[in-house]
Design brief:
single chain; alpha/beta; Elongation Factor Tu (Ef-tu), domain 3; Rossmann fold; Ubiquitin-like (UB roll); 3 domains; seven-stranded antiparallel β-sheet; five-stranded parallel β-sheet
């Protein structure tokens, strides 16, 4: 099945290269479902040999899943939770209160089930690897030297899913050290608890895991209670050697990510050393946008924006009433159902496109790097035209 397409840099290509690959939905079979907690599962998908090149990935990337639930097409993006492994894609799915897809997945997915899975995307990957992280020896020699290469990750809840994949890939190189700050309510909520313990046993001197539990008392007071600014400051003062960290990975809800970013900014940590990904912006109504484009009709007698787009080598056009305040993504979906998107909340980056004519206003951006924005890339789910005509390129 090849309904939705986008392009991105291939794992293993240098930042300056222009090699692109198509991000495409294929129907994959669930090979295993493993219960992680009472509210979370790990889902493994079997990737047939003929599709393995399309599902090559770097640790930290995600896939979008697509299913028909109660007659409605629903898409959600989930981070891959395993270091690159040919023939397999694994994701962690945690139930969300009122979450349509996450609850459906936890209740229905089982071995043998078939579901549409988009080939991997995302930029939440280490800047210090020059090739696929399935080849740890290719990590940048400038950073990973004998006894060097220090990395810190901070995650909360299901934010551990890309982080554990990144940690496994980094630790596979003999010279790296990883600290993980992982916040949860209680020990029973910790996803991949046994996997983390096994990883610690395998790398006892190079991996340090700092579990912070908000509703359980731990032996060390610094790890008990909510991870707030005061507690984070203590951890940075007494546990983490902030000045000598080569790269930071932050993943979780907006509040956690912003908390750590603010503290690192206070300590003058360069922004280019900090990689982050959000699982939620915390904004009400996020993800409520229709999966097929909300009903909007151009007014032949009124004022409309002319929106053009390039997708999969084909051009499309649509008129959008100025009064509707419609996003470019929504407008494009009204005429082409295969326009790529997943969260529609400015978080995942699947709907990324380059503005090649006209100007837009982007309301939120939690997925694009500053250099991407400078080059004209936008999140179409958050972008609205500000000129009479706008043209974007999803293939760029």
């Amino acid at each position: 099945m090849t309904n939705d397409t986008n392009t991105e840099q291939l794992p293993g290509s240098d930042a300056g290269e222009t090699t692109k690959r198509r991000a495409t939905f294929h129907t994959l079979e669930v090979s295993q479902v493993r219960k992680l907690t009472d509210k979370a599962i790990e889902v493994s998908f079997a990737v047939p040999e003929e599709l393995q090149d399309e599902y090559d990935y770097q640790a930290g990337q995600y896939v979008a899943l697509r299913a028909n639930i109660d007659g409605q097409e629903v898409r959600r993006s989930y981070s891959i939770c395993e270091a690159p492994t040919p023939g397999t894609i694994k994701v962690g799915i945690k139930r969300d209160l009122g979450g349509l897809f996450s609850n459906w997945a936890n209740d229905n997915l089982a071995a043998g089930f078939e579901i549409d899975v988009m080939s991997p995307q995302g930029a939440f990957v280490s800047k210090h690897q020059l090739t696929s992280m399935s080849n740890p020896d290719a990590l940048s020699e400038e950073v990973v030297k004998a006894g060097q290469g220090r990395f810190v990750a901070a995650a909360a809840g299901s934010g551990i899913t890309p982080v554990i994949a990144i940690a496994k890939s980094l630790l596979a190189h003999e010279g790296t050290q990883v600290d993980l700050i992982y916040a949860n309510r209680a020990a029973s909520d910790v996803m991949f608890l046994e996997d983390l313990a096994d990883l610690k046993d395998r790398y006892p001197t190079r991996l340090a895991i700092h579990h912070v539990l908000s509703r359980e008392q731990r032996q060390a007071p610094i790890y008990s209670g909510r991870l707030d600014a005061e507690k984070l400051e203590l951890i940075f003062e007494h546990v983490i050697d902030v000045e000598n960290v080569d790269e930071w990975f932050l993943c979780g809800p907006f509040e956690l990510v912003q908390l750590v970013r603010d503290e690192l900014d206070k300590r003058d940590v360069p922004a280019e050393k900090v990689r982050f990904e959000l699982f939620s912006t915390g904004q009400p109504g996020e993800g409520a946008q229709s999966q097929a484009g909300r009903p909007v009709v151009a007014d032949p007698d009124g004022e409309n924006f002319d929106i053009g787009f390039q997708l999969d080598g084909l051009s499309g056009e649509v008129q959008s009433p100025k009064s509707a305040r419609e996003t470019i993504l929504n407008a494009a979906l009204r005429v082409r159902a295969d326009v790529p998107f997943a969260c529609a909340g400015g978080v995942c980056g699947t709907c990324r496109a380059k503005v090649v004519e006209g100007e837009v206003e982007m309301a939120e951006n939690y997925a694009l790097e500053s250099d991407e924005v400078e080059k004209g890339y936008v999140l179409t789910c958050q972008s609205r035209p500000t000129t009479e005509k706008v043209v974007v390129d999803f293939d760029a």
